[in-house]
Amino acid sequence: MAESNPRSLDEIATDALDNVLGWLADEYLRVEVSGLGNIPECGPAMLIANHSGAWGLDAFVLHNLLHRELGRPVYFYASRVVFRMPALASYARHHGAFADDPTLGRDRLADGHLVGVFPEGFDGVGKPFSQRYRLRPFSPGFAVTAMQTGAPVIPVSIVGAEESLPKLGSIAPLARRFDLPYFPVTTLLPLPAKWRITVGEPVPAPEPPDDFAERSAATRRLCDAVWITVQGMVGRDVRQRRNPFW
Prior knowledge:
The protein is α/β, with parallel strands linked by helices. The protein has one domain (about 10-35, about 45-240): 3-Layer(aba) Sandwich (Glycerol-3-phosphate (1)-acyltransferase), CATH 3.40.1130. It is built from nine helices and eight strands. A six-stranded mixed β-sheet has the order 1-8-5-2-4-3, sandwiched between helices. The chain has a two-stranded antiparallel sheet with strand order 6-7. The longest helix is centred in the last third of the chain and has 28 residues, at about 210-240. The protein starts with 8 loop residues before the first helix and ends in a 7-residue tail after the last helix.
């Protein structure tokens, strides 16, 4: 009788984190998701979401939900910080997350896959609670990649992460000690705010003009249009809440 191969520690850590994220999404944060039909069943697309909450939990919750619901992989661009934390690094590697790619997943899009990006970066998760749901400017790299590949851009709004892990301050010595952009003062565990994730209609990427100046202008227009769309979706979902915890 053949013996099965023992599971690696990375596989065990990944499965454990998958289970925790699934429980958080379904039972604790009670995430409501709408608009999944706007994500194509096949072919490339870029999912562009707002980023918030002191530790960036929204990225892992969003990926977990999409991984379960879509039946196709979504490859997220992740910060190098993620790959310095063993449990998170195992999860990220297992699910094909990538860093240090200036093209933001162009090869994956060319192969017909989905790519997820949080263009606010650390500016989004690092903003104080007093500025919650005010999106920071988007880095235009995603717009460059979308135009190069012809992949549609799908805006995604995440509401609830700001209340779950509010950034109330920052501890500079700890940030320097661990080489982090900031070390937040926040709750020890996420608060049970109710989350809402909305997937908007695809925004087509225009053909890139031959002229450099025109191409740069087209890139900026696409970036700004997606920022305005996501900010509008976030604002609408915030206004529709009666209470962040219900």
